[in-house]
Amino acid sequence: MNSHPHDDPYAVHSIAEDAGGDAAVGRVVWAPATSLWQGVMLAGALAAPFAFSWSGLGVFVVLTGATLLIGHSVGFHRRLIHGSFQSPPWLDRLMMWLGTLVGMSGPLAMIAAHDLRDWGQRQPACHPYLANRAGFWTDYAWNLHGRLVLDAAPRQAIPARIADDRFYRFLERTWMLQQLPVAVVLFALGGWSWLLWGVCARVCVSVTGHWYVGRLAHTTGPQRWLVTASGVQAHDVPWAAIPTMGEAWHNNHHAWPGSARLGLYPGQADWGFAFIRLLERLGLAWDVRTPETLPERAGLARA
Questions:
Q1: Residue 93 covered by a domain
Q2: What is the DSSP string of 144-211?
């Protein structure tokens, strides 16, 4: 996967501007496989306190932090979706595997879901599913147990360099099964405590937390910037900066989606960008984009 360093940093890369579609009209339908997956992880998470151990809690903290930082924030979001820096293929594949271990989906479905939401929020109006504007429990059920079917969906095409990658296609087909080797190792080393905390509780907290912080980031909180053409504006969620590895500075992200740095101002912790800077010092990341190196964005205004 080598996204060109001069790709438009403000584009929705899998949905062209002339892709057509109506973001506002559609329905949310039940997604049986995903719903069953979420239910199993929730059941395991509820059982985890009955198998509590300090070592199991430690496994939960370490694996949750590693998969969210290296896999989801740096790998899936900043590298795969936005191409905000470049890295060697072996590191790309490691990050994509760790991102898959978060338990939300494989890399191709992650791009498709992210870009559809991104595209929808840039329209004058979009479905409440895309804007996280349904009631709390409805929004929860929609995002963790359903999927949106638009009456007129835009044409979506994931770039061939990603869609045709055999390893990414393998992860996409087997994303749920990727937890099995982790579960086997954890059970062998620490029994039920390590398995329940290291797999079920980790996946449940990561996926539910991703939805909840995303809901807040599209509905309430401080703002510094407005994207004037977008029907949905972003907000920062300061208390979630550390557990989301910097992703909670969502208002900054909407302003500069191609930036590898999300925490832009003093006091805005961004562990994801700190990790990218570490990779850069090790020669494992280059062409790192920040607002200082990005072209001026039309339609960006102070809040």
A1: yes
A2: HHEEEEETTPPP----HHHHT-HHHHHHHHTTTTTHHHHHHHHHHHHHHHHHIIIIIIHHHHHHHHHH
